[in-house]
Amino acid sequence: MSSCHTDTIYKIAPDGEIIWRLGGVVSDFRANFKFARQHNARIMSPNETHTVLSFFDNATRTPIREPTADSSRGMIVDLHTSPQRMVARVVQEFPHPDGPGNDVVARANVQVLPNGNVWVKQDWLKCYRTYKFSFVGKPSAPPDVHSLATGSDEDNTTTTLVHVSWNGATEVKTWNLYKTDDVGNIDSPKPVAALPRMGFETTLSFKGFASYVIAEAMDRHGAVLGRSEVIQTVVLARLSTVTIARESEWLNRKNRRTDTTRQAIWLMRVIYINPLVSFANGLFCGMTLLVASRALWKAKWSRRRNDSGHKQLPQYDE
């Protein structure tokens, strides 16, 4: 536990007993350094005889006390915790970058990074603590894609040019491009173009024309991170008649497959669903006729009883 108001770092047992004190008026360690108003004390590597600590020494001056160091600093110290020899020594210190005379009145922290570097937060960042970690961005929105096509009169060819980006995604290594129809049926599992990610926006191109495309983001292991929506290609210049005819033929084949699927669904409805609906309708009509027949019979029976002179006896209360 670190108490900045007593300038002391404590180790406390589960039952509340103080095991040792570092710093302050009553310290259990002999040390060749002092600290004051410290923050963010962390145990790095304890064992039976030694404990390594990291903390930020604010070294703050007060009206009745001089600063405990030339400037505020990050510190890593080694504590020899054996009762026979309780000694504290400085392993590393990281003084204020502006030099002596600069101390942090409050806040600040020290973070030892996995690679051994040390992150020290000073006073110019107006927050209590800061930490450094590897950022991994995984956007919830799909990649952004813009596709356009242009034709060449010289060699009678068409080029499809696709610009793709994914704002916030940090793990994209490769972009794959697929030709598709308007509902996302991919022409082939093999992409028509693939390219390593080139900065924020990557441009892919291929010889040929696709009315619709899908872009796919891959990580460094070859796993799919995400896919774009189906994007319609914008035509910038006149395309050859042959190119348009080929694309129309391909789309028609895709549409025929889609129509076949729709027909199969319709047939399943006719075979399985429609008989159930007919049975339910018949049952409802039968019940309705039964109720109506009973009501008619009751009315007819009442008329006959009245015509025969039968009179209902009056009812008297007891």
Give a nutshell description of this structure.
This protein is an alpha+beta fold.
Provide the fold topology.
Elements (H helix, E strand, L loop, with lengths): L1 E2 L4 E5 L5 E6 L6 E2 L7 E8 L3 E8 L15 E8 L6 E9 L13 E4 L5 E4 L22 E9 L4 E9 L8 E7 L12 E4 L4 E7 L4 E7 L5 E4 L3 E2 L1 E2 L5 H67 L11
Parallel strand pairs: 4-8, 11-19
Antiparallel strand pairs: 1-2, 2-3, 5-6, 6-7, 7-8, 9-10, 11-12, 12-15, 13-14, 13-16, 16-17, 16-18
What does this structure look like?
The protein is an alpha+beta fold and 318 residues long. Among the domains are: 2-121, no CATH class; 144-242, Immunoglobulin-like. 21% of the residues lie in helices and 34% in strands. The chain is built from one helix and 19 strands. The strands form five sheets. Strands 4-8-7-6-5 form a five-stranded mixed beta sheet, with no helix packed on it. A hairpin with a 5-residue loop joins strand 16 (212-218) and strand 17 (224-227). The chain is flat. The model has no long low-confidence stretch (mean pLDDT 81).
